[in-house]
Amino acid sequence: MNFQRGKEKEPLEINLVPMIDVMLVILIFLMITTTYSKYTELQINLPSAAAERQLERPNEVTILVNAQGQYVVNRAPVPFRSVEQLAGELRRAAAPLNEPVVVISADATATHQSVIRVMEAARIAGLSQITFTTQSPK
What is the pLDDT of residues 77-109, one digit of tens each? Predict the structure, then answer.
């Protein structure tokens, strides 16, 4: 006796939905458990400016910082005693100007701290517009 005579065999098919569900769970697990490494050092490439030289504006307060950390405000040497004293010098230099701009010209080998002192002094003096000078590439 053949009981399966009238029945046709169903074609085999692979159901991908459970496999996709498992792959998504694995992916989410890996995303959550992965630790992202932090940079141990930063490589900084300082930009060089190839822009045209701007004309000197009448409302500039120029401050020069040399490699030894000495300051010159508008061509007058200023001995550094404190940030507040440097802020007073910047305030005096900017007093007759309308909307003064502080232009910092720091030596390439000047310490970061000496430039930050100038920025802090400008903040204390109420001078919010600060710019830096660069050297054109040769």
Answer: 888 889 999 999 999 999 888 889 998 888 888
β-strands 60-65, 101-106: how paired? parallel
Contacts of 128 (CB under 8 A, 6+ apart): 122
CATH of the domain at 81: 3.30.420.270
Provide the domain count of the chain: 1
pLDDT digits (tens, 9 = 90+) for 25-66: 999 988 888 766 544 443 444 445 666 666 667 788 889 888
Give 50-100 as a DSSP string: -SPPPPPPTTEEEEEE-TT--EEETTEEE--S-HHHHHHHHHHHHTTSSS-
